[in-house]
Amino acid sequence: MSTESKAVNAFFHNAIRKDVDGLAYDLLLSQRQDRIFEMFYIQRHDINFIADTIGCCPRVVEKELRTIRKKIVAHLEL
User: Fold this and answer.
1) What gap in Å lies between CA 72 and CA 66, rounded to an integer?
2) Please, what are the domains in the chain?
3) Contact (Cβ atoms closer than 8 angstroms) between residue 27 and residue 71
4) Are 58 and 40 in contact (CB under 8 A)?
5) Residue 39 contacts by C-beta under 8 Å, 6 or more apart in sequence?
6) Chain centroid to CA 64
7) What is the tens place of the pLDDT at every residue in 1-42?
8) Residues 6+ apart with CB under 8 A from 49
9) Contact present, 10 and 72 (Cβ < 8 Å)
């Protein structure tokens, strides 16, 4: 696991809902990224479930999660 992933996971482990809502608002995510963000980080669904739900392959979800993670790291200045 990369240091970025560890830092993002640590943020979500310690964050309260207000922090997460503020982060989601500030990130300026696309509609698909916003849905993936909600399902992965808030609802804690796995990548395969998310892919089945939104109608794409798991690799697309993984790519979007990398993009989301980069935006989170940039926002948190890690």
Assistant:
1) 10
2) 22-76 (1.10.10.10)
3) yes
4) no
5) 45, 49, 50, 53
6) 8
7) 678 888 888 888 888 888 888 888 888 899 999 999 999 998
8) 39
9) no
